[in-house]
Amino acid sequence: MSMTSEELNYLIWRYFQESGNAVSALALQDETKVLEFDNKYKHLIPIGTLVNLVQKGILYTESELLVGHDGSIKKEDADRYGKDFNLVQALQIDKEKFPEIQAKGRFALEHEAEYYDEQEEEQQRQDEEQSNDGFIKTLEEFVKLDEIISCKWNPVSDEILACGGRDSVVTVLRVDVSNKNIKSKIELRHPFAPSSSAGKTTNEVTCLAWSPRGDEIVTGVENGELRLWNVEGKLQNIFNFHRGPIVAIEWNENATHFITTDVENITILWNAVTGTALQHFELRDQSSTAESLGVDIEWIEHDKFVLPGPQGSLMVFQMDEDKPIGKLLGHRGAIGVLEFNSHSRMLLSASDDHTLRIWRGGSCNSSNTFYGHSQSILAASWIDEDKVISASMDGSVRVWSHSDNALLAVSMADGIPIFAARLSKDKTKYAVGFMDGQITIYDVSQLVSQLRQSRSSRAPITIPIFGIFQNVKDANCVYDISWNHNSNEISVAYSKEGGSIISL
């Protein structure tokens, strides 16, 4: 006596049809061969067959109570047979007689733990033992800030934070960590001059960049003006060649030069000491001159840098050279992220084509291409010389391996778009800001430890969460995130109200 899975599927499909569950029947019809059975056997199977077989199964289970394994007739239990015998009682008796089959992997129910094998089950136990307390921390606001749209901590001081506002003003704050308040404020003010090219009536601060030594900061606003200030707030120089909003500022490693780019795809190399513009690049896409080629730029040497080019290309330039010394082809969309790993000498890029690529020095072809994100990638960083972490507007955070050319770990946020993400200075935490205002801190150091212990597993694991902070205002999107030097605090800029400094 036996019944195949296809036969059972057909009986279930017939039951759906008979009970009026048309949508469920259609879904089962698309995934199985029930129509083939229906064409052959529908005239042989009466209405209500599935229910009838289940009722007979219940009766069979009840009859087993009367007969022993040796065929002897047991003494009748008058109390038991005086009651109605139902499905729950039959299942209970069957469970007592036969051990329950543990649900794993694809057979696990939604509320049950899913493991691919016994090794991953053991790994899960070890991960729980290694966690600090087994719970995700609820993070608290350290200091409340005024309304801001961008923020950058000083790279060498935990007390200094620069915040960009909507009114042409950058506020440099000195934070008193022990007393949890603001000790002092310095305003770095651009003259209010609306952008003539964009027709804007505002002049927001669009970009901030501290020098590597933390003693100077470049501020860029919507009308294209750039200003260089020292850490005490004194104006050092003014740069006025851009005519559109600044989208990226990047210093070289010895703080002698910086490059800037705007929404009109104009990039300028500046001498930070003399304040002069050394080179001017207009890398326009002839097929679509109005669209931005990218929103990031990167130095790969103290005198070499990479700029987004037409049709997703990357153009490598050297100081005092008007023409590119290299061209990297592969992306098919605007460039969202560029990050150079000075130790491995490899360049990471991410694009609106939903892919990440890794480039080796001396090669015009990418050594790795990572697919998996379904929307634009807005943040990506090197965790170490092998692993890369990325965040996308599809709501996912993913960790990739350069050497294995594979996805190592993933975290999904139920489709809530991610608007900002930053890796901490010590590369142990990853802060992600969502459209609904939530901040999630992922524990990268714990993830690396888990990956080291589960090398035999080919399936991506879940990225562990260190803590969560939820803004109380509804639909308060996260605009920007910045880590302090010691990687124990983050600053957050929101769309609707004042920013926050959050302590870990």
TrEMBL record:
The keyword Secreted does not apply. One of its GO terms (molecular function) is transcription corepressor activity. Residues 152-254 form the Anaphase-promoting complex subunit 4-like WD40 domain. WD repeats lie at residues 198-232, 239-280, 328-359, 370-410. SMART domains: WD40. It is found in: Nucleus. GO terms for biological process: negative regulation of meiotic nuclear division; positive regulation of stress-activated MAPK cascade; regulation of transcription by RNA polymerase II. InterPro entries: Apc4-like_WD40_dom (IPR024977), Ebi-like (IPR045183), LisH (IPR006594), WD40/YVTN_repeat-like_dom_sf (IPR015943), WD40_repeat_CS (IPR019775), WD40_repeat_dom_sf (IPR036322), WD40_rpt (IPR001680). It comes from the Eukaryota. Its main location: nucleus. Gene3D superfamilies: 1.20.960.30, YVTN repeat-like/Quinoprotein amine dehydrogenase. Keywords: Nucleus, Repeat, WD repeat. GO terms for cellular component: Set3 complex. This is Anaphase-promoting complex subunit 4-like WD40 domain-containing protein. It comes from Zygosaccharomyces rouxii.
